[in-house]
Design brief:
3 domains, 187 residues, 6-stranded antiparallel sheet, OB fold (Dihydrolipoamide Acetyltransferase, E2P), SH3 type barrels, mainly beta, 16 strands, 5-stranded antiparallel sheet
Length: 187
């Protein structure tokens, strides 16, 4: 499906210069002189390259539709992650860096959504928020509780997040996977 260059939004998958790219950030600019354009920061989904491109309103790009399938995370071996198709039980191995920092939040049996382009896995989406256990949290400094200051804490997967002063070790919290930030205390 062809779309105008100024209609590109973050998250759109487009075909550009023979590659498949995800729009990461977009900024619409209308200079005082000349036509408006969309400044798009893109990431290549095949090799991970990044690119900044200006698209004018007259330019069109091909928007790509990806197939989405439900998979279940099984295990990690070296730098490879193994997932199982929940319908066919077929197993797929992907490199850990395809998931980036979010890979630390994978747990055995976690349901994920995998995007495929021509039957080839392009990206893996984890749930936006997961529950984690705090294994180490700094002590509260006296007088610090009145302000909205946060303290560092280490989760059971080794990730460091900032938490409110009243949260201590052994507490389960909800964490935003992609921002790696504290959301709330788990129920």
């Amino acid at each position: 499906m062809k779309i105008s260059g100024v209609d590109i939004r973050p998250g759109n998958i487009i075909e550009y210069e023979g590659g498949i790219w995800r729009a990461v950030k977009t900024q619409h600019t209308q200079p005082g002189k000349g036509g408006a354009y969309m400044q798009v920061e893109m990431k290549n989904l095949i090799d991970g390259r990044k690119n900044n491109v200006r698209f004018r309103s007259a330019e069109t790009v091909e928007r790509v539709r990806l197939d989405t399938k439900d998979f279940q995370y099984l295990y990690a071996e070296d730098d490879q992650l193994t997932f199982m198709d929940k319908v066919t039980y077929e197993q797929v191995q992907l490199p850990r860096d395809l998931l980036g920092d979010a890979a630390a939040f994978l747990t055995d049996g976690m349901d994920v959504s995998m995007e495929l382009y021509e039957e080839r896995p392009i990206s893996v989406q984890l749930p936006d928020q997961v529950e984690c256990l705090i294994v180490d949290a700094d002590a509260v400094v006296k007088g610090q509780t009145a302000s909205s200051s946060y303290k560092p804490a280490v989760l059971d997967n080794g990730v460091r997040v900032m938490v409110p002063p009243h949260i201590g070790s052994g507490v389960r919290i909800v964490v935003d996977v992609y921002e790696q930030t504290y959301v709330r205390r788990a129920d």
